[in-house]
Amino acid sequence: MTDRTAGATHVVVTECDHDAFAEEQAAAAAAGATFRVAQCRTADEVVAACADADAILVQYAQITAEVLDALPRLRAIGRYGVGVDSVDVDAATARGVAVCNVPDYGTEAVSDHAIALTLSVARAIPRLDRGLRAGRFELPAVRPVHQVRGRTFGVLGLGLIGTETARKAAGLGYEVIGHDVRATPGSTYHGVRAVTLDELLERSQVLSLHVPLDDATHHLVDGAALSRMRRDAILVNTSRGGVVDTAALVAALREGRIAGAGIDVHEAEPVPVDHPLTAMDQVVLTPHLAWYTEESYGELKRRTMQNVLDVCAGLRPANVVNPAVLAVAS
């Protein structure tokens, strides 16, 4: 990658599992900036790799107050994705560092994936596939399987992705209900009939999660919430692993208190191969890739880089989660 040029904005990727960085490199070159990719996760590694950075792009690395204190020239942090729970946003704001994300890049991809997980679990597709390959006819093992029409699809979190998931579920024939902290129960919110959280848990035969991870949503789906769900319910999570208490989910599945789960995001990533969920036939797991399509991949990379380049150029980026920093800077 490009070496540091005197006077140029310098952007460093702390770590990222992408296979190429041509989009970021092109954006940096167009802005006269330099760009380098590191692969560091620990605080000491991040500080060492980014000491000369004006901006950093992060995927999983934890950017804490201590890390920020050790990077005094830093002006912007770009998060590859929607959530910014890996960044101490309050600490960044206090130090005048803009935190940027790309909140709408994966709307189509993630909503597609939520529907795919739903149907895979509901129709027992992976189990039937494994049985066929092993020469088994699996009907008794997968019963009961229900048609979509007449089933209730619940959406927890009616932002861009949740609303698009609701639209696609309705198109398949589900009756769709939703809950959002901004929606009044009984009203129609973004085209979805809003209900209380209790009603959502108690009625949903599919419960699809689309909320950010913060103090209010951490383990929002815990043992108590799972105990309110129907025995024929499927839990689908494409939001953040920490929204679900995994130990409570494992217990609910083992005891047959819910019917199945489709999980793309996990409290511990990568998921250990001996994790209890990996042995459950009523569970479909994917490795935090709901966000991925070729279209969303390129968009994510371009916009993540452009956000921090704009901050460093004194421009307002398209997406910033702590805009007060920009107001002070201007």
Can you put this structure into words, describing what you see?
The chain is α/β, with parallel strands linked by helices and 330 residues long. It has 2 domains: 10-105 and 293-326, NAD(P)-binding Rossmann-like Domain (Rossmann fold), CATH 3.40.50; 106-285, NAD(P)-binding Rossmann-like Domain (Rossmann fold, 3-Layer(aba) Sandwich), CATH 3.40.50. Helices cover 35% and strands 15% of the residues. It has 13 helices and 13 strands. The protein has helices spanning 22-30, 43-49, 65-69, 89-94, 107-122, 125-133, 139-142, 160-172, 197-203, 223-228, 246-254, 294-312, 324-329; strands spanning 10-15, 34-37, 55-58, 76-79, 98-100, 152-156, 175-179, 188-189, 192-194, 206-209, 234-237, 260-263, 283-285. The strands form 2 sheets. It has an 8-stranded mixed beta sheet with strand order 8-9-7-6-10-11-12-13, sandwiched between helices. Helix 11 links the parallel strand 11 and strand 12 (260-263). The longest helix has 19 residues, at 294-312. The protein starts with 9 loop residues before the first strand and ends with a helix. The mean pLDDT is 94.
